[in-house]
Design goal:
Blueprint (H helix, E strand, L loop, with lengths): L1 E3 L4 H4 L5 E4 L22 H12 L5 E4 L9 H13 L3 E4 L13 H6 L6 E3 L4 E4 L2 E6 L10 H24 L4 E6 L12 H9 L3 E4 L14 E3 L2 E5 L2 H4 L4 E4 L1
Parallel strand pairs: 1-6, 2-3, 3-4, 4-5, 7-8, 8-9, 9-11
Antiparallel strand pairs: 2-12, 6-7, 10-11
Helix pairs in contact: 5-6
């Protein structure tokens, strides 16, 4: 499956931008609060709404890099989806570790279901923005919470999903890539990973990720230019809930 984020020719000319932000951690349907994580998170849905209204145009595209909702299923997440849909711009969704509503085997069903007309769920597929292919997957990094064997199993599965995304875009004729993940592309202390090597293999111009929260974790992975690729952290608290522009 491929999602083209072009609008009309009139809209394309000088009137589009690509943005990214992750980790909304919404709970409008179940009443879970993020207040315990500090003052920055208090009333954060309103901060998100104001930031989108100020920056994002209806003709823009926003990649939201996972952890959309605390809901455990689609029904519990629906108020959060309605909130996200109400924000300006077309939305491309990456799967996060807390997105329990999104079974990896059901991505096509999500895209063909009641949410498919408002969001594109990016996994084992790709989207296009102008002459760029937008590829991505959840990713994985080692955080010391599981065995090394389990980490390798999940990481390798995510690497294969990412390769599927790249290869589909390449077969469709795309030569320019932006790579999106939920998890950071490296584990703490790594100078490279299978994810960064794949980004280099396919010549991705940018790698955009989230998941890292709090000042003590903002620099757990790459930021800035590494081996010719621009790495960008777009966790909501890092951005103070203001989407980051990725491309004009």
């Amino acid at each position: 499956m491929h999602w083209n984020v072009f609008w009309t020719e009139k809209d394309i000319i000088g009137d589009m931008a690509l943005w990214a932000i992750g980790d909304f951690h919404l709970s409008l349907g179940i009443g879970k609060t993020m207040d315990k994580f500090g003052d920055l998170w208090k009333n954060h849905p309103e901060k998100i709404r104001k930031a989108f209204k100020k920056r994002v145009k209806p003709t823009d595209t926003v990649v939201i890099t996972g952890d959309h909702s605390w809901g455990r299923n689609t029904a519990e997440c629906m108020p959060d989806f309605e909130f996200i849909a109400s924000l300006p711009g077309r939305k491309i969704m990456i799967r996060g570790n807390h997105d329990l509503f999104w079974d990896a085997k059901r991505t096509d069903r999500l895209n063909k279901g009641i949410l498919g007309d408002r969001f594109f769920f990016l996994q084992n597929n790709f989207a296009s923005y102008k002459d760029y292919a937008l590829v991505g997957t959840k990713g994985y990094c080692f955080e010391g919470r599981d065995t090394l064997e389990h980490f390798i199993k999940i990481r390798d599965r995510e690497i294969e999903r990412l390769r599927v995304s790249f290869e589909m875009a390449k077969e469709a004729g795309y030569e320019k890539f932006i790579m999106f993940m939920h998890y950071p592309p490296t584990s703490i202390g790594e100078n490279s990973s299978l994810f960064t090597k794949m980004a280099e293999e396919y010549g991705a111009e940018q790698v955009v990720y989230s998941h890292c929260h709090g000042i003590e974790h903002f620099y757990d992975s790459f930021q800035g230019n590494v081996n010719g690729i621009e790495y960008r952290l777009v966790s909501s608290d890092y951005l103070k809930f203001k989407p980051a522009k990725i491309l004009d």
